[in-house]
């Protein structure tokens, strides 16, 4: 049986190749000549995808290990119930709401005594709520993972084109802002689905499937 990483490799490579071919079709749509596949650009983009798969695969596993689980139906219902009742922003972001969000599901409101602290020192840590896990994974995906993936894209795709180290850094500074802005226009929706219903070993493939359009954008940005 194939390992989850191998399955992810195969599926993500196919989807990355598909997105690059579609990008080439779009790029050549106004050309008077018939479509010609840019094999070198296809190989470069697929190679970039192969290199990035294990990074994201193990990143998702590490993130899930640190913040396990999904939001429960009750937690989601509470959020929507607050919205349906037109809760004020002050109430929504009140200390009690934030404390309940980031506190463990089994914690009390009372402060523990010194003896209780000593007992709890060696006790297993209480599991955080699913909503807390979702929020933390969502934040990390929009910030740290976003920066990591954009820098790796710019560096790897241009390195495969033969650019030197100094030029790579110049391109990171030049391209980071527009790519990040474009990413923030679609990634929050993908992250919401990814961290509420998609199993951890399927998240890279799910991201690639949702990212076919994103892959087209990256291919066009890289001048296919």
Automatic annotation (TrEMBL):
Keyword annotations for this protein, in alphabetical order, are: Membrane, Transmembrane, Transmembrane helix
For bias kind Basic and acidic residues, which ranges apply?
111-123
Q: What is its main location?
A: membrane
Domain of life (superkingdom): Eukaryota
- What is the protein name stated in its UniProt record? Mpv17/PMP22
Positions of the region Disordered? 104-123
| Annotated family | Belongs to the peroxisomal membrane protein PXMP2/4 family.
Q: Which Pfam families match?
A: Mpv17_PMP22
Task: Report TM segments.
Answer: 39-59, 138-160, 204-223
Cellular component GO terms held in the UniProt record = peroxisomal membrane
Q: Which organism is it from?
A: Penicillium malachiteum
Q: Does the keyword Transmembrane helix apply?
A: yes
């Amino acid at each position: 049986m194939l390992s989850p990483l191998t399955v992810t490799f195969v599926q993500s490579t196919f989807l990355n190749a598909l997105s690059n071919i579609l990008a080439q079709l779009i790029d050549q749509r106004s050309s008077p000549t018939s479509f010609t596949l840019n094999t070198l650009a296809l190989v470069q983009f697929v190679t970039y995808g192969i290199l990035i798969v294990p990074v994201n695969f193990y990143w998702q596993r590490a993130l899930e290990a640190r913040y396990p689980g999904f939001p429960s139906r009750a937690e989601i219902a509470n959020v929507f119930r607050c919205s349906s009742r037109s809760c004020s922003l002050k109430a929504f972001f009140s200390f009690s709401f934030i404390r309940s969000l980031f506190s463990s599901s089994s914690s009390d409101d009372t402060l523990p005594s010194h003896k209780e602290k000593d007992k709890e020192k060696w006790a297993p840590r209480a599991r955080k709520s699913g909503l807390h896990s979702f929020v933390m994974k969502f934040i990390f995906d929009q910030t740290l993972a976003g920066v990591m993936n954009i820098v790796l894209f710019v560096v790897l795709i241009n390195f495969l084109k033969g650019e030197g180290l100094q030029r790579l850094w110049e391109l990171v500074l030049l391209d980071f802002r527009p790519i990040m802005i474009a990413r923030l226009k679609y990634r929050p929706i993908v992250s919401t689905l990814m961290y509420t219903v998609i199993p951890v070993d399927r998240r890279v493939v799910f991201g690639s499937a949702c990212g076919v359009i994103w892959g087209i954008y990256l291919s066009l940005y890289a001048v296919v």
